[in-house]
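#struct-pred

JT: dropping the chains for the assembly here, can someone run the whole complex?
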Amino acid sequence: MSRNAGMLATIHPPEHPPTAWATATTYAGRTIRQFVRTPQLLVVNAVTSIMFLLIFRFVFGGAIATGPVAYVDFLIPALASVSGLFSSGAVGVAEDADTGMFDRMRSLPVPRAAVLLGRSMADTALITWGTFVTLVVGFIVGFRVHGGLVGALAGLGLCLIFAAAFSWLQIFLGLIAGSAQAAQGVGFSVFPLIFVSSAYVPVESMPGWLQPLAENQPVTAMVGSVRALVLGGDTEALLGHTTTWFVVRALAWSALILVTFATLSTRRFTKL
Amino acid sequence: MTSSAAPNAAPAIEAHGLTKHYGSRKKGMVHALAGLDLVAPAGKVTAILGPNGAGKTTFVKAVATLLRPDAGSLRVAGIDAIAHPEKVRRVIGLAGQTAAVEPALTGRENLVMIARLFGHTAPAAKAAAEAVLAEIHLEDDADRAVKGYSGGMRRRLDLGASLVGSPRILLLDEPTTGLDPRTRIELWESIRSLVAGGTDVLLTTQYLEEADQLADQVVIIDHGRVIATGTPTELKSQAGRDVVEVRVAHGHDLAVIAEILAPLGTEAPHLDEPARRVAVPVAEGTASLATAVRLISERGIQLDDIGLRRPTLDEVFLALTATGAPE
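RK: done, full complex below.
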């Protein structure tokens, strides 16, 4: 007993609380290790993406007219852009709240906002995994890059930015859900955003009253920007706008989503 | 003013008129804390006892700066917890039902992570994890994933996680709820050795035996306020009477025994049929016991056991909470 008390006496209280960066990277490290060591989590994330990909590629794809662009080339950039909306980030956040992990974090002398930043970093990595799986399966079922290497890399870069923005949306949904099960349902609430966009079908094929909505929402801008970069300038005619028009809108939407949900989430998480 | 000069002179925790409501006026308010006054002296183990919903966890959360009280004052190690929660977080460690360990990480990884989040450098975090693993006897399982741990090992790790920052005050929220008796005793041992090392402890529990075993001071709360405070011994004598307890060899004798004991008791005998036991508080201690023995042997009833004992904290608790808090 006295030996043990002696062991503990060797620990001295740290002189300073951890920095925001140390906090964020420590929490991100824990969360990423949790993903990697929970194969179900990675599989579920991949399976959802693959399922939608295959259904649209082989079931609905034949009935969707995309002019001079092959449907698989139309589809894959879109799915790569929106993997953040299919991610289970909200469930993970709700679980951290459920299990008491967040309470433990909030009882520690950490900058509280940095905990969520770490969560966002890890979730961005998880979403990027979904994008990677989409691209690999996409290549297998016939997707090819037509816009050159620079365009492809720029498109990939945009996907990462969208991932970061959507990770904050997922964090917010997870925080307001109340339980992991509810988070699952809340996660589905973003599906209209995916379907009422140009992700799966050209906006022109929708009824007239729906088109303005589909045309002016974030997913259409994001999907359009990656498509234009990956498929090359020739597709601009099909998409109806220039590459720049799409990229500027996509970045603006990403910034808006990121700032809005980072602010709302942080406010919720840090309040005493 | 927060005095950093002599923080140990201040009580570990000092709450006055602490109030916390949930809900709204329209839908009905829940008064989780209804003007709670509590002083946990430094250098002691204080146990908060109460039924579910009494406000135990709300109080721990307020001390851990996880929620802000609606009214009242709260000082933790002399620091005003409402004005300077970030300073409080540097001196507390939280474990139990409100905190968690990560199942996908190993025991060691969990401790290193929390140590980093207390502010340790990477080498210091490793060393702190090592020291804590020895303390909680998890060295052999340190590099296994926590999801393979037993419930008791998880609780020990959870306790350990609250220690890596060398906190002055340890908050344990129902640390042994749901554990089997042997594991519970092991965890008590760990907590005792910490206390011997000089850590102040505030623990909540539903188990009176736990409070009896670990605490120097017991605070009984119900409906968000304190209804009794004292050492376990003081509380037992507050409830007064010694108890004559009889265990019969054959269950069918229970009713007869109760009938024999009834005139000796200050209240109706309490029957515990599965345990074949009758207990009754008596006014005259050993004299009452002698009378009971004589009356029972006259009837020739076979007993397993008969004795006189102090009331348990359970009986104290039930007596106090039955009368209820004044509204």
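JT: nice. The mean pLDDT of chain A is 89. Residues 57 and 72 of chain A are 6 Å apart (CA to CA).
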